[in-house]
Amino acid sequence: MIGLSSSAAKDLGQKPATRAEFFAGSEDIIRQPMAAAPTITETVSISINDVELAVPKGELIVESVKRLGLEIPIFCYHSRMKPVGMCRMCLVEVGFKAPDGTIKKMPKPQAGCTLPASDGMAIYTDSEMIHQDRRSVLELLLINHPLDCPICDRGGECPLQNNTLFYGPSTSRFLELKRHLPKAYPLSKYVTLDLERCIQCGRCVRFTEEISGDSNLAFRFRGAEMQPSSFKLMEYESKFSGNVIEICPVGALTSSQYRFRARPWDLETKPAICTVCSNGCNIWLDYRVGRFVRINGRTNEAVNEEWTCDRGKFGHDWLNSEKRLTTPLIREGDSFKVCSWATAYDAILKAFALGGNQVAGLANGRASNESLYMMQKLFRVGFGSNNIDSRWSRHLPTYQQGFERVLNLNQVQTPIAALEDKATILVFGTSLADDEPIIFLRVRKAWFKNGARVIVAHNGPTDVDSFAHEVLRYRPGTGHIVASVLLNILVESGKVKVPPATRAALRAFTPEKIEDQTGVSESKVRNAAELLGEGPAIITTRTVLDMDQAQDILETLAGLAMTSGGEFNLYGLEANDQGARELGFLPDMLPGDVGLSDISGRGRFEEQLGVVMPNDPGFGTHGIIGACAEKTIQALWLLNADPLTDYFDRTLAENALENVDFLVYQGCIESEAMAFASVVLPMAAPPEQDGTYTNVERRVQRMKQIIPEAGNSKPAWRIFSEVYLRVTNTTPLFSAGEVFQEICRVNPIFGDIASEDFPDQGVLLGSEV
User: Fold this and answer.
1) Euclidean distance between CA atoms 578 and 365, whole angstroms
2) Which residues of the chain have pLDDT under 70?
3) HSE of 705 in the Cβ direction (CA atoms, 13 Å)?
4) Distance CA 64, CA 41 (A)
5) Mean pLDDT over the full length of the chain
6) Three-state DSSP string of 304-348
7) Residue 516 burial by CB count (10 A; 0-12/13-18/19+): exposed, middle or buried?
8) Three-state SS across 561-575?
9) In this structure, which long-range contacts are made by residues 305-308, counting pairs with CB atoms below 8 Å and at least 24 apart in sequence?
10) I want to staple 236 with a disulfide (CB 3.0 to 4.6 A). Which of 52, 136, 187, 753 is the partner?
11) At what angle do helices 550-563 and 479-492 cross, to 10 degrees?
């Protein structure tokens, strides 16, 4: 925390101290998270088609019938949104049991999507009355429907089409002209509206109001003229607009990118993991003739429910890019020449033969666990170098600064699904909808459905501001002061207890001075501290690592969580940022969060692999870039990384790439850094290889190969394995599964999940450090 930093301690006339020293021996005053009380569900007895069953009291009948494997057809109903009963497709007969056992039915059918279960209720879903009602509803919906199924992109997977076939009339009684409305109207760059097909179910409008919260769609006009539209007919702007395409029960909302590219029956569909951000959303990847076509959300209640963000849904077209790397290249003068894998490996082995501190490797957090592990193994064992890193932020905490080391505290403590049950959530220093879109939806759900108190502290506007109870808008560079003042208020009020030295350090950060220092008013920060209460979930991301006093901010937030009985969460940004940390992909770490100075950890690693590890801690990203610029490092290997775009100092990155003698660029697609490369290695994209990824909540998920590798490219882990074989002359690992098994052997965190029967929802790594 800022109160414990060297600068603050100097101002107070104290010796600088670490958090470990300040909190040592203070277990008696640091609160532990409170255990959740067991939930007891009250049930009621109902009958469905004369079958008795017990269901939770208040459960909607449309959900109750599923318990018997039955179905009530629906259009407007969606299980994740409030029921509205607009389409009337879900009509059922309802009665109640009399004391004599007879059933007295209600005179008219009821909407099953709005009817809660109560004791003694009798439901009938298959009576002649209901069949007639369904035919009538569908006949009404089809009066003006264009019936353009042969050219509609929704054809073959359309609920209206399916329900009409199963429940609708065989012929139409209407001969009049149908209404005609504008077709293919572009609501946004992703969503196209065919208004003639709209059945006014309201799903799209309700999604923007209840789930995404941007409220950018609404119904205009009334009656037959009613239509979903953006306000003032402006472009529909949303970070989650792709979801309205999937939940639309007709072909009214279609994907501008997918439109007319394929028919559903032409596509092959396989489960996949989105690697665009760190949330690890479960998706369906549709492909045709080995080429990517579209992405749809796949249900995983523990992660993304069924939602996707637009970055994930529409951000995979690069898989079909003409700039994909498909064959190894080697430099000849000012140009590249196509070469064999063997030629590329020979050049690499010659350049990296120096080993030790003269070689280095930089990766991007989008690589799989297997790829990062094999790169680490190649450098540590094959090249004898600890110069590896996958972080690109301004502040790079050392292993000794990690919370696991000094506080026995995981950097991530709250599973994604558990966020919606939190009473209080503090979002600090991050634009959540941009950095962690699915976590944003969970936080909003916690507020919208469960009334969670949400506090936001950031130096700019964010999407969370729209529903936050308090917003602390501080000036850039002053976030550490806001965090320390929050903790100080809680300490002074007696709500939390800290060691005396910590309390003394915090006295420099008083709420009376905060407005002059940060721009946040005293009343706002006091109100935020009051809202925090006990057991808050504190959320931040690694964007904080690019801020001034980043380590102080993180230590203060971690201390705030510990002392208030809350949970601290430092979420990564890339698909496998968390996996890189769990694997020990740092210059001063080893797999299993074992520091290089930990003899027992080194012994376990060396014993499992039968190798000898280098002793000297290596350079991190800053050190590697600087050493390359100074020509101290002779050979650099880039794994799907581009310092020119990933590193904050482009000038220094350019100097590094120009001055390093030998540069290996290994990636899926052309980049700026490739122009400086000595050898280019084409790498298979995530859907083109087997692999596992660890998302922000420490959930390990597996993705199997879906489409073939582009050209002559290879999975990243295989490239490192083949080079490792040539360096060490040992038996190689032949599959991603074998690599993962080795990861589990050397890393106790992964030890229990090396199984062929990998759960569909993934495996959440244990919360115990």
Assistant:
1) 8
2) 1-39, 406, 590-605, 607, 754-756, 767-769
3) 14
4) 15
5) 88
6) CECCCCHHHHHCCHHHHCCCECCCCEEEECCEEEECCHHHHHHHH
7) exposed
8) HHHCCCEEEEECCCC
9) 305/80, 305/441, 306/80, 306/246, 307/211, 307/240, 307/243, 307/281, 307/438, 307/441, 308/240, 308/242, 308/243, 308/274, 308/281, 308/283
10) 187
11) 20
Rounded distance, CA 662 to CA 351, Å?
7
Element (H, E) at 295: strand 291-297
Which of 218, 700, 648, 615 is closest to 392 using CA atoms?
648
How far apart CA 457 and CA 288 sit, in angstroms, is 46
Backbone angles phi, psi at 178, to 5 degrees: -80, 155
CA 164 – CA 250 distance, rounded (Å)? 12
Q: Could you report the per-residue pLDDT of 428-438, keeping only the tens digit for each? A: 999 999 999 99
Residue 288 bridge partners (DSSP) = 291
Of the candidates 760, 752, 763, the residue with the CA atom closest to the CA atom of residue 698: 763
Tell me which H or E stretch contains 62.
Answer: helix 61-64
- Helix ranges (DSSP H) in 520-598: 522-532, 550-563, 577-582
* Cβ atoms within 10 Å of 31's Cβ, excluding its own: 16
Quick: pLDDT tens for 694-747: 999 999 999 999 999 999 999 999 999 999 999 998 888 899 999 999 998 888
Residue 763, strand partner residues: 700
- Other CB atoms closer than 10 Å to residue 29's CB: what's the count? 12
First vs last C-alpha separation in the chain: 22
Q: What is the pLDDT of residue 614?
A: 74
CB-side neighbour CA atoms (13 Å) of 102: 3
Q: Helix 621-629 crosses helix 650-659 at what angle (to 10 degrees)?
A: 60
The DSSP code for 69 is T
Sign of the C-alpha dihedral computed for residues 293, 688, 691 and 640 taken in this order: negative
Question: 154 near 250, Cβ under 8 Å?
Answer: yes
Residues in the chain: 769
- Of 187, 357, 192, 336, nearest in space to 259 by CA: 192
Q: Which single residue is written with the structure tokens 């879903």?
A: 125
Record the tokens describing residue 530, joined without a space. Answer: 């009051």
744 backbone dihedrals φ, ψ, rounded to 5° = -70, -30
Cβ contacts of residue 57 below 8 Å, gap of 6+? 41, 42, 43, 44, 116, 117, 118, 119
Cα-based angle 455, 205, 441 (whole degrees, multiple of 5): 30
pTM: predicted TM-score of the whole model, two decimal places: 0.91
Question: Residue 452: which of 521, 533, 525, 526 has the closest Cα?
Answer: 533
Strand runs labelled E in 127-242: 185-186, 191-193, 218-220, 227-229
Distance from C-alpha of 596 to C-alpha of 604, rounded to nearest angstrom: 12
Q: How far is CA 655 from CA 362, 622, 630, 676, in A?
A: 16, 13, 8, 11
Q: Where are the alpha helices (DSSP H) in 660-746?
A: 716-728, 736-746
Closest CA to 428 of 491, 394, 471, 475: 471
Please enumerate in sequence order all residues whose Cβ is within 8 A of that of 618, keeping only pairs 6 or more positions apart, or say none. Answer: 357, 360, 385, 386, 387, 388, 587, 588
Strands 51-56 and 335-338: unpaired
CB-CB contact of 170 with 279 (8 Å): no
Three-class SS state of 193: strand
